[in-house]
Write a structure and sequence with these properties.
With about 200 residues, the chain is α/β, with parallel strands linked by helices. It has helices at about 35-50, 70-85, 95-105, 140-145, 175-185; strands at about 5-10, 15-20, 25-30, 60-65, 90-95, 115-120, 125, 135, 150-155, 170, 190. The two termini are about 30 Å apart.
């Protein structure tokens, strides 16, 4: 894989990953709420300086572009635009839920997987098999779950135990810039200019 810096800031997880040719991607992450604005730049500096790289040395930057937290998404988008100012480096804007699905498929490649991010009131951002990425009520999500399905993401505890019976649950370990890299590596999105980057809001 080329030299790609990936950012995931759409939830309480702040994850920065770097792919380099001939090496497994490396990741730095934090799950400290409210720490994104400081952690993003610290992690980027640690990863790049640790491999004697600057922003101009990258082949591309990838970002988890939403849905998710308004604040987190703005921090990620602003960081990318600022760091790439004056550069022609291509940017890949990856759907956050698709990146989570990519991570879940590592351990459950044949399962029906539902990725979710907790939203306001009785709602969640969801990507389910056969459905588009959408903001739906928790009851609607519960009606889609079948035994042995995988439910991955945040806010799972807000569903009833009866809805979650026989459902495999996965949490914030799936929210990672490594999933963003996997989507890019699979050809799942097209490159844009940094100036055109806009988070996906609902």
């Amino acid at each position: 894989m080329p030299r790609i810096l990936a950012l995931e800031t759409a939830t309480e997880v702040c994850s920065i990953a770097l792919s380099l040719p001939g090496m497994a991607p490396v990741e730095l992450r934090s799950e400290v709420r409210g720490a994104h604005s400081e952690a993003v730049f610290r992690f980027i500096d640690e990863l790049l300086s640790g491999h004697s790289l600057g922003m101009a040395d990258l082949d591309a930057v990838a970002i988890s572009a939403g849905p998710g937290s308004y604040t987190g998404l703005r921090i990620g988008a602003s960081a990318v635009k600022g760091l790439l100012f004056g550069l022609d480096t291509p940017v890949f804007a990856v759907n956050t839920l698709e990146a989570m699905l990519a991570m879940a498929r590592r351990t459950h490649p044949e399962a029906r997987i539902h990725a979710m991010i907790d939203a306001r009131r009785q709602h969640a951002y969801v990507l389910s098999p056969g459905y588009p990425c959408e903001l739906i009520e928790l009851e609607t999500l519960a009606s889609r779950l079948h035994p042995d399905d995988v439910l991955a993401g945040t806010g799972i505890h807000r569903l009833s135990e009866s809805a979650l019976k026989n459902v495999v649950r996965m949490g914030t370990e799936l929210i990672s810039a490594l999933g963003v890299l996997e989507v890019v590596g699979s050809g799942g999105c097209k490159a844009i200019r940094a100036v055109d980057l806009e988070p996906l809001y609902f």
